[in-house]
Amino acid sequence: MRLQKYLALSGVASRRHAEEMIAEGLVQVNGITVREMGVQVEESDVVAVRGQVVRPEEEKRYILYYKPVGEVTTVSDPEGRPTVMDHFRDFPVRLYPVGRLDFDSEGLLILTNDGDLAAYLTHPSHEVEKSYIARVSLEMTQEELRRLRDGVVLDGQKTSPAKARILRQDAFSTDILVTIHEGRNRQIRRMVEKVNHQVVRLKRVKYGAVELGDLQRGEWRDLTEEEVAALKQYE
User: How far is CA 145 from CA 106, 186, 199, in A?
Assistant: First the structure.
């Protein structure tokens, strides 16, 4: 890596300003002052500016992944089940899932190495909304839908009001779009059970301002700058 890029990634200055600092003799590599442009440095080299050692900050990555059914959202699994991290073992930075998505659920999962952002997004006080399409057994009535919206009691505590509407239904099943900001264990499934239905399929389609879109199972992409900025509004 060129020295001026190394300095820029370290947050010292822009590349252009870094070149000026090099020319002024303010930069040392392994204790030797460097004034030439284009000097290459390795990870093992010690770079200092005005005698202060500097190191590049790890590049922040923000990934949108379509988790299929049959993967756990942990770094490893004691039962030996596939994990979402199996797809990112050779990634240039170490990623971590933001929150969780059940083994038997699918859809939008964000992975990042930005620990601060992940902590903010998952903290209950920030009330980041998450939307799911749930296919439930039988035909759901408007009264049952109202109960979901009002909140149901789980583990002795009522859930916060949810947004819920019917997308499609027949005598055998109903597709509903549910939006919540809590993150209790298997919350959507347990809420649906409280109104006398069973979840047949559950897919997360939105997290904050980020939408799954037309991504297919097992595919991933980098979040856009606009999507990252929208998530950071919660910080």
Answer: 22, 18, 14
The helix/strand/coil state of 205 is: strand
Residue-wise pLDDT for 80-139, tens only, equals 999 999 999 999 888 999 999 999 999 999 999 888 899 889 988 899 999 999 999 999
pLDDT digits (tens, 9 = 90+) for 168-207: 999 999 999 999 999 999 999 999 999 999 999 999 999 9
Full-model pTM:
0.79
Q: What are phi and psi of 99, to 5 degrees?
A: 75, -160
Full set of structural domains in the chain with CATH: 3-54 (3.10.290.10), 62-125+213-232 (3.30.70.580), 129-207 (3.30.70.1560)
Residue 24: CA count within 13 A, CB half-sphere = 9
Q: Which residues are catalytic?
A: 102
Q: Which residue has the tokens 């000097």?
A: 39
Six-digit token string for 22: 């090099």
Distance separating alpha carbons of residues 55 and 32, to the nearest angstrom: 17
Fill in the DSSP letter of residue 36. Answer: S
Contact 107, 101 (CB under 8 A): yes
The tokens describing 218, both together, are 């097992």
| Rounded CA separation 122/126 (Å) | 8
